[in-house]
Each structure stands twice: as structure tokens, then as C-alpha cells.
Amino acid sequence: MPEYQTSPGTRDILAPDSTRWRRLVSVFAEVVESAGFGQIIPPMFEDLGVFLRLGEATDIVTKEMYDFEDKGGRRIALRPEMTAGVVRAFVQHRPVLPWKVWYAGPNFRYEKAQQGRYRQFDQVGVEVLGVDDPHLDAEVIALAWEFYARLGLSQVRLIVNSLGEPADRAAYVEALRAYFSQHADALSVESKQTLQRNPLRVLDSKREQDAPLIAGAPVITDFYSAGAADHFATVLAGLERLAVPFEIRPGLVRGLDYYRKTTFEFIGGALESSQNAVGGGGRYDGLAEDLGGPATPGIGFALGVDRTLLECDAEGAFRAPSESVAVFVVDVTGGLEALSLTAELRAHGISADRAYEGRGMKSQMKAADRSGARFALIVGGDELANGTVTLRPMLGAVGDERAQTTVPRTELIPTLKRALSS
Ligand code: HAM
Fold first, then answer.
1. 19 alpha carbon to ligand 1 midpoint, in Å?
2. Strand order of the sheet with strand 38-39?
3. Burial class (CB in 10 A: 0-12, 13-18, 19+), 192
4. In this structure, is residue 201 part of a structural domain?
5. What's 412's domain CATH number?
6. Which atom of ligand 1 approaches the CA of 303 most closely?
7. Is residue 230 part of a domain?
8. Which of 25, 47, 159, 416 is packed most tightly, with the most Cβ within 10 A?
């Protein structure tokens, strides 16, 4: 085993998976750019304080942050998510409202690594600042839905909830605290600890012991102010109008503290429940103010790239593309012809590869076969003398000799273009 390997929770993404990865981001960019979003590329690390606003009672902040002091004595953290950095950028640049941005890139959380749960993972996502309209919530959710549809996914489910106005949420948290405290003896040890930090998160416990108590817990729905109830109803009506199917889940509490009103998650129907949240988001109307900006409403989502691709694997959707080049140049005259022919083909938009080190015909044909190219372009002594090349369709290790043709060098590009388009 080599001395150095990827550290736990990190992976190398190799071709063709990396190609598939890049295409997924392109599909996302197409969907959101057609809705007027522009890309933001924020830094991967920020002042620790930016991320402390995610909530001092959340695991992401207390247990999972990669934070350190840099050589200038600053407290820095690798970003565990993108929303806080985007809102910091908003406060810093004060762009014209509404501000609609999308992003793609890695995030870092010190989690217990397992399939679908990594310490470095990628997200694609959007954020909108400056719009207080529940129709936007529906529109934003529908963009993620459209993205899943374009990937060919059909088993993703949407669950939605509203956490109400801040006062509703606070009253609800107190009711939960009182309820769980009253029945603390029946709670698991872990949930007892969670209760001290954040009663909402007890609802997230997957432990069997906690299930009966959670089932009887107060529900947020009973704590909505008239405004919050109206807002939620309008979001749901919007989703219905857009034909986006949803499931209301009053127990949906997200792992970040900044949410108000609308929250949602996308569940990958083909994944195990420990890592089946393929995406999530919600409203965070107080965050800009928390980061020192003017009170500004905000909403967005982030979709996990790694998990979305696992869901694609499980559903047999959005398969990895074939990586092969179109043409493999086989030059048995020394290699100079291969050097210029590959350059010429590539300059005309035809992908091409070759073998090196002056290998013989047999070895080069084997390489051509392995490359998956549709055609081998053969240059031997005769071809070189006559100013021609031999174009051989590849079928197995030696290609189809009977179907090969001799083409003048001057006719090569148009001939190849015709052959490749048929
Ligand atoms: P989140 O729910 O923490 O929300 O993360 C969003 C998605 O990122 C998850 O649904 C999951 O697919 C993926 N993800 C999270 N942690 C991991 C991990 N350790 N390994 C693999 N995938 C992971 C946010 O990050 C919010 N910033 C979303 C948001 C945007 N809310 C408003 N705007």
C-alpha cells in the first residue's frame, strides 16, 4: 500500500466520473442561468465569525468546523456551507436587489465519514437576497425540481415545512423544551444532551427509543402567527400551480439555525436513510442583519453533488459519458506524422490521441483499440510517400480492414467529419 492516501472522508474523482461531475454542474448552470441567476465564486475559507452565525447550537459549528489560526493570527475556517459566505459577500458589496446568485464548489465538515457522508463534499446551489414574496420560495424549489428532472431522476421526493416567524419558532422551541424535559427519563442519553443545546434537533433523532416521544411532541403548525400561516399556504399553492409534488413534514428541522418560515429537503428515494438528503434549503430572513448588513430577506438551497450522483447511480440515471476520442493516429514512420496529424485534427474540433515511443504497428493498433476511438488513422511508408492516410473503422483489436479507405491528406478533415457524423 502506498504511504500516502486520501485522508478519511475525501476522495479522488477520476475520469469518467469527473466528466459526469462537470456535466452535472453544467446542467445546473443551464437551469438556474435561464432563471436569471449569476455565478458567485466565493473563497473557500473565511473569518470564523462568518460561520459562527450558522448557530452556536449546531453540530456544524460546534463539532465539525475545520478552523485554525493562520500565520497572521486570524481565526479562519474552511467553509462548511456556502450560504453564510454568500450573505457576507452581499453585505460587503451591497449589490442591486434582488440579488440572485448560484454557486458550485467544495465544503468541509469534520463528520464521521461513510458512503455519502464526506469531510469534503460539493454542493451546487442558489441564493436570492432582497425578495419577501412566498412565490419566490415556490419558484426556487421548482428550480431544484427541474434540475432533478433534467438529470433524469424520478425518485426524488420533496418535503416542506415552515418554522414560522422568529417569535413563533421561539415559542415552539420553548414548548418542545418543556415537553421533552417533562419526559426526559424516556429520552435516549444522546437526545437528553441535544435537548440542552437545541430542543428542535431532538425531533431529528433516529433512535428507536425516542420515536414514541417525538410522535407525541407539540407540532409547529399550532404555533404559526397568521402571517406565517399565510406565507406557508401561498408557498404551497405556488408549488401546486407549478405541479411540483410535495409532502408537508412538520417535524422537518434543518441542521442550521438561520432558517425562518419555509424550509425544505429533497430526499433521494433510492438511497439509504442515513444519507438520503440529497439537498435542502429555506428562508433565512435574519442572516444579512446578523452579519452586519441591512435587514434583507433571503432564501436558497444547496444540493449535494456527491449524493445526487449516488442517487443517479441507484436510479440508473445520468450515466457517466464515454471518454473515448474520435480518432487514434497510428504512425509507423517515426512519430512526426502523428505529432502533426493529431494537432491538425484537434484544431478542427476532432478529438484525437496517439501512441508514443515509436512502437510497432501491432502495439499501436492495440492502443487504438483500448482508446475506444471510432477510427484509426494509419500512416505507413506508402501513405507518407503518396500524401495519403488510411482510415480504418475500429471493430476489435485490429479494426475492420475491409472497410478501410485511403484518403488524400488534403481531403482528410472533410472526410472524417462526414464519417463521424454518420
Ligand atoms: P445542508 O442541508 O447542510 O444545507 O446541506 C445541503 C446538502 O449538502 C445536503 O442535503 C447533502 O446532500 C449535502 N451534504 C451536506 N453534508 C454533506 C456531507 N458531509 N457529505 C456529503 N454531502 C453532504 C446547507 O448547506 C445550506 N447552506 C443550504 C441552504 C442554502 N439553505 C439556504 N440556502
1. 22
2. 38-39, 99-108, 120-129, 298-304, 277-283, 260-268, 156-162, 247-248
3. middle
4. no
5. 3.40.50.800
6. 7
7. yes
8. 416
| 133 and 31 co-located in one domain | yes
**Residue 3: per-residue pLDDT:** 95
pTM of the model: 0.94
Query: For residue range 147-162, what is the model confidence (pLDDT) as tens digits?
Result: 999 999 999 999 999 9
Which residue among 81, 129, 257 is best mutated to probe the pocket of ligand 1, counting the most ligand atoms within 8 A of its Cβ? Answer: 81
Residue 330's nearest CA partner among 383, 268, 377 is 377
- Take residue 289 and report the three cell numbers written for it: 442583519
* CA nearest to 164, candidates 259, 299, 287, 248: 259
Cell triple for 345:
485534427
The DSSP string of 238-275 is HHHHTT---EE-TT---SSTT-EEEEEEEEETTS-GGG
The number of folded domains in the chain is 2
User: Residue 69 sits in a domain of what CATH number?
Assistant: 3.30.930.10
Domain boundary among 265, 290, 315: 315
Domain shared by 341 and 256, yes or no = no
pLDDT of residue 36: 98
C-alpha 358 – ligand 1 centre gap (Å): 51
